[in-house]
Amino acid sequence: MFIGFSVSNFLSFRNTQTISMRASKVARHKAHILNRSGRKILKTSLIYGANAGGKSNFIKAIDFSRDIILEGLEEVDLNRKYFRICYEGYKQPGVFEYRLLTKSGKEYSYGIVISYVSKEILSEWLIRIEKNGSETCIFNRDLDEKGNRFTDSEVKYKSEAEQMRWEIYLDDFGKNISASMKRKSILSDIAERSNRKSGVFGEVLDVYEWFQSIIILFPTSQYSGLNQLVENEGVRSLFSDLLKYFDTGIESVESKMGRMEFDKIFEGIPGEYAEKLKIRISNDLEEDSVMFRINNQVYSLREDEEGNIITTKMMQNHGNAQELFEYAEESDGTQRLFDLLPLFCEHNRNRVVFIDEIDRSLHTNLTRKFLELFYTLTESDSSQIIATTHDSNLLDLDLVRQDEVWFVKRLEDHSSEIYSLNRYKERYDKKIDKEYLLGRYEAVPVFEEQILEVMDD
Length: 457
Description:
- Helix 3 (about 185-195) packs across helix 4.
- A hairpin with a 2-residue loop joins strand 3 (about 35) and strand 4 (about 40).
- It is built from 10 helices and 19 strands.
- The strands form 4 sheets. It has a 7-stranded antiparallel β-sheet, covered by helices on one side. Strands 11-16-17-5-18-19 form a 6-stranded mixed β-sheet, covered by helices on one side. A 4-stranded antiparallel β-sheet has the order 12-15-14-13.
- The longest helix is centred in the N-terminal third of the chain and has 17 residues, at about 55-70.
- The protein is globular, with a radius of gyration of 23 Å.
- The chain is α+β, with helices and mostly antiparallel strands.
């Protein structure tokens, strides 16, 4: 589960900005609260703000830092990712910190600090947060006052063998660290090299798998990781029912079997990006069938008993089974639903999903129905949605809680500030959509009326 995130010196975020999913004392919509291990965590957060205010940059910060954590600095583009309005931004570190709850029920603070100049990880920490508020440092890498690298840990070991193995791993990131290790996270290094699932190694693996499991959806996402068993009749039937529920005109989703070479599917995709997609899809394919969107078409891949890849193209029946429609022939709104609806399928629950522009190409009533359905169908699991949106129709305290609404505004120095609707202590019967559009909460466009005078001249 996602509890919170802080970021500084990344794109429009100059000073530290934080979003929290911890539930406040708001009494309404108790079904929107997840009670896990004595912690009350919200199921959703909706982020509002004017164009160019920084909403999408928040989702980008999650995506960017997750890639660094899992793949290392060599696999990300650091160019101009710092706060560029300030001359010193390039020389300042970028800082990303998460609060999360793993499947074991343990809470952690995980953070990473990077240098845009030397393209290295300067600092990294994993801290277990106990229920009484005390903290245990699982590992910490940092620089001392002389600039020397060191690592430390407060772990209580189960055996001398575990201690020896742990200290060997941490030593690789200490004083004599290699150039390649400077660009890699301790979290990924230990999770990938150690096959132990107990003790301190099990804790590291739990956190690493949490980062692997989160889903990030941009309007242009090609592959979300929301795997679908298109060959599974029950899942396909549910998907069809959901598309009918949202009035798309689709009667059913059908699968069209075929054999296509894996590499041919990616023709037209830039080489480096195509290779990353292939790796992600291949890794997921080892465990299950994979559904993904490439070149404006939806495919499902699975391996047969002999290791051959079977390709299934997803087609839609609009009332004539002899004339099926391809994904590319559907409306933009229906295509957007193909990104979102897999959230409701059984094997995709208990996921944390970040969505940029959840309302993109969707009618406002449909977006609202989507959220209502999300609250209903995921009431018994730990699914969470954190989404940016412009849809003021969702600003309704009959639909969401005050602490589920966040705003991002652009300050005078062109940096972004994040803050909660809770700042305003609004009553439950307040029409917050009107107040937002009138500018009470800021985070709306401010127009220069002088332009009319200039044009008149």
